[in-house]
Amino acid sequence: MDTMIGVIGGSGLYEIDGLEGADWVTIETPWGDPSDQIMTGVLDGVKMAFLPRHGRGHVHSPTTVPYRANIHALKSLGVTDIVSVSACGSFREDMAPGDFVILDQFIDRTVAREKSFFGTGCVAHVSLAHPICERLAGACLTAAQEAGVTVHKGGTYLCMEGPQFSTLAESKLYREVWGCDVIGMTNMPEAKLAREAEIDYASVAMITDYDSWHPHHGEVDISEIIATLGANSENARNLIAKLPKLLGATRDTCPHGCDTALDFAIMTVPEKRDPDLVAKLSTIAGRVL
Ligand SMILES: CSC[C@H]1O[C@H](OP(=O)(O)O)[C@H](O)[C@@H]1O
Ligand SMILES: Nc1ncnc2[nH]cnc12
User: Fold this and answer.
1) Domain 4-285, what fold?
2) Which residue numbers delimit the Nucleoside phosphorylase domain (predicted)?
């Protein structure tokens, strides 16, 4: 099968360069419009798609990012592997602003988002014990090392609803009691939806700040984040440029089952399925419906 790498760019990363035949394409989905047009092209012989999560000009808040439309749009283009890039606060002294963390776990504290393509009339339950594709995360780690970035392997991302930053009590809870490593506002439900869409997903956290817990750094503010975003996004671009050679133009089925997640997931018996929902699901779940 052909590889197609989908990059979802977070705060500070609204476009990438160097794609051959670069073209911004408009995709319509049954879940509404994606955050923006998607840039498609080829890098080192590998098909690529780039979507700015908040839209060019940073239009969508973490709550109003159209997560389902975004994942559907990438799936409809043939994306097999999603690399998410996100600005994050750090809960660890040794994960400093400017460092990257290749995530391996999430805690979802969001409360105001649509989190599934499925629902009444077609119920499905996918496994999410390991939300990150190990193979893809490994490629991101190598790409970051090759790009000369200080990178940490593994980390748990607390996804908060936002848009306000955490209170000091929340920051301490997530760090001291829950043992989280980084905090952001967008990787959930993105990772859940990618799993439902059977797309391998990995996430690169670009540290911008120490949230609010650090006794010597005071509370997080947006000017501190923006000051770090420029250098981070340059490093992210360099990381992305290394990925096609590491992943290759063709791929095998994911050995950990990321791209066969729907094999036994659908619970609703065929005769009870809602035909309208089944039609909406054809791009995401047509393989098993
Ligand atoms: C710019 S600070 C808060 C904002 O940045 C992160 O966005 P993303 O994950 O898309 O890089 C964070 O989640 C918030 O949305
Ligand atoms: N401290 C923080 N909390 C939530 N999202 C963030 N994005 C960047 N820094 C953040």
Assistant:
1) Rossmann fold (3.40.50)
2) 5-242
